[in-house]
Specification:
Elements (H helix, E strand, L loop, with lengths): L4 H24 L34 H11 L3 E4 L12 H5 L1 H10 L11 E6 L9 E9 L5 E8 L3 H12 L3 E3 L5 E9 L2 E9 L5 E8 L1 H29 L1
Antiparallel strand pairs: 1-2, 2-3, 3-4, 4-8, 5-6, 6-7, 7-8
Helix pairs in contact: 4-6
Amino acid sequence: MAIPLQRKWFVIPIAAAIVVTGALALILSQPGQDLNFTAPPTNGQADTGFTFLDVGAHAVLDAALRRRLEDRLGSEAIAFRTPVDLRFTFRELLPAHWPHLAALDDQLNPPLGERREHHTIKLMYRRAAQRNPALEYVEMLFSNFDGRPLTHYVKAGPAGSDILAELEKKYGPPDDLPAPAGVSRASAWRREDDLLVAIAAVDKAGRPTYHFIFYFVENLRTLVARELAEEEAQRKARREAGRAVF
């Protein structure tokens, strides 16, 4: 039955309101969407692992941290529910040297390569060089369950050699690795299961570039465990709902 014209104009705003309300409900249902997580007590203990701009494994994303990062790196871009690719562009390194990270990467990514999104918050600083000329791009990935950092990715130009020298002063001599194709030097530091990887390469213009990747492995494991628990709870709810029908 056709809807009279006057009723059509009445129905359209209602339908739009329903769509907007549903979208807002979906956004608000995401854990930690306000980007202001609460850190548990630290009992005065400093973060003794790997850090970038003082953001280490025990940091928690909140308004104060975001302001501090903006002061050091400039304005941010934010993405929610992103894929988590631990191999970045250096595909051979993880399975060859760190099977514990390769196993986590397999858990985070479907075997056939389809896109899978996770409970994550990605902060991206594309104009970091305006605040720090040594840096070209910074990407920091956090869990949207508890605000803990999962990975940091830092790209630098020729000044990356100075960053590498500072890291060697701070953490000691790294382990040098066989360099994969297109890489002039690959080095890594390991503290328990956490990793800091430094890659020296040359871009298409022949310019030296440096890539620094921080992996906070226990935080990554926590993300995987909480997502699996959430998926199991959803499966259980669907089974119970199916049984209730009959």
